[in-house]
Amino acid sequence: MAKGIIYSITTFIIGALILTLSIIIFANSQNTELRAMEINLLNTVYDLQSSLSESIAKLFTNTAGIKINVENHTVTISETIPNRQLKQYKNNITEFKDFIENDNRLVKIDNTKINNLPLKIMPYKISYERESLDSKKVQIKNNDSKNYYESISITFNITGMLGVIIPDEINSGIIPLVIIIQNLTNKITQTINIDISKENEIETENGGAIFNIDIEDGEIEIENEGENEVQVIIKLDLQDISKVSVVYPSNILIQFPEFEVYSEKNTKIV
Amino acid sequence: MNLPHLKSHYINKKGYIFTYDIIIAVFVFIIIITASSFYSSTSNENKLANVQIKNIGSDALNILVKTEAMDKLDENGIKNELETIIPKKYDMTLEIITNTGEELSITKEIPSHVFIASGKRYLVTTNNKIVKVEYKIWQKE
What we know:
By secondary structure, chain A is an alpha+beta fold. Chain A has one domain. Chain A is 30% helix and 42% strand. In chain A, helix 1 packs antiparallel against helix 2. The model of chain B has no long low-confidence stretch (mean pLDDT 86). The interface between A and B is medium-sized, with 36 and 32 residues.
């Protein structure tokens, strides 16, 4: 009698073990299937996100008329002020948005900031923007209480006479501001050490570049007060805090609500 | 009546039934474990292999975009480049549509009963055409 009970219990335990093992294997299989689906979904989102981001960056580089170069911790932004190409860029990016959104209901591209075209220099809270696309004034705003500038250089490339650089109001400080006016043969340079948090005003006159440079509270405004279109190269040497990138805030939102997967990203230009 | 004889007879029968019961039970469990292991291994293998096929398609298209092979939207150029990129055991088709209405197809006959992975990318050409590329990739039979 006792033998039978032991035999039954042993058989029951072995059976239960085998059944448990089967359930574990089955559950593991289901889990792998779920993970495979998630990997697939994330790869799809990444492919879409990166291709859209690269496309916007290419449209920007091809048509906005703004050249951006990042080398170590120096950001150089070059454009003609006023920039006549920006209207064409706006048309292109609007067409891009329409084409993508009509083709893919999961993607939304937010271009609401297009008229200010703010380029964000990351990870610094510095933005390069304008009041409107046809504005003759560009603004470089430091949206942080901390100063990140090591030095600032503004170069005007002109075709005619060089003219003069007139420092109207200067508050001396430790940040070198270098202003250069150059044509094909000649060049004038003036370096002024300024306190960027206080008001500084410099003008260029009597030549191909009639500009007003206004610096106050960490904000730099460069305004073309003349009629000529002038190529301006702004070079910002920044403190070494992290790898620098320039981001264009054209938000790309991709959503797969049925899987609760959402992705939102800005476009990295450089 | 010979009761001890009957008792012994039933006890012997019980032994047989019990043994048969165990044999059947073990047999059933072996079937369950074999089936679940088989299902598990084949299912996992297929799912992960399918992810890999999609990755190969995505990578191939990415190379075409990065090397600017898509830039001229030349059907033969893209086809030749694709053949050099894609591993021999896979086949791939591309459907290309631009915002200006141009359409290109790099097609191959898609076999039945194979897993077909698909995906898409967008790109902008040097002359600012907006392009949508859809691919299908499968393992050759």
